[in-house]
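quick one, two chains, predict together pls
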Amino acid sequence: AQSVSQHNHHVILSEAASLELGCNYSYGGTVNLFWYVQYPGQHLQLLLKYFSGDPLVKGIKGFEAEFIKSKFSFNLRKPSVQWSDTAEYFCAVRGAGSYQLTFGKGTKLSVIP
Amino acid sequence: GAGVSQTPSNKVTEKGKYVELRCDPISGHTALYWYRQSLGQGPEFLIYFQGTGAADDSGLPNDRFFAVRPEGSVSTLKIQRTERGDSAVYLCASSLPGTVDNEQFFGPGTRLTVL
């Protein structure tokens, strides 16, 4: 069975600090990888996704993530966070050819102005 | 355009009661998914519909849970004999037909509380 591990439960940063949220997955095959974001009071939105090709993917709002196959990782990064990035971030994996998304437990990010 | 909508937004019920949760997908999205998000957890897959049929119901926890989508659009998740452990946010998502590479768009969820 596939699983996703997000290393940090709650991250607190000051504005302009750099962000890296860890995500490791367990799956015995080709995967599609996703980061979703949930802003306070809003529904889950897709931040970025990786299916194939360039392992460095860029998403909305200046976020990017790097797929490192040898480490089973898909860490999310942003060079300079803003207060508006305060949200909960979920990493998810899907086996290629499958419809089920398997999510991690999420990381809550609080950005202090 | 309108996103995925779910009703009600909140549902409080008593242990043992029956509940129905409704999902209205984005127009034209033939794929529909239900997930359950318990407190402190990420969403967990319950069931996937392609059109009217349940293509994958492997995530339903037991036979108290059932979902239908009779006309290939609106879906209803039904929970019989609710238990306190069923308390969670139930999320619905929809996507375009075709390949599995299509993005899943999520609704706001229904928060179910079983007293």
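Chain A is about 0% helix and 55% strand.
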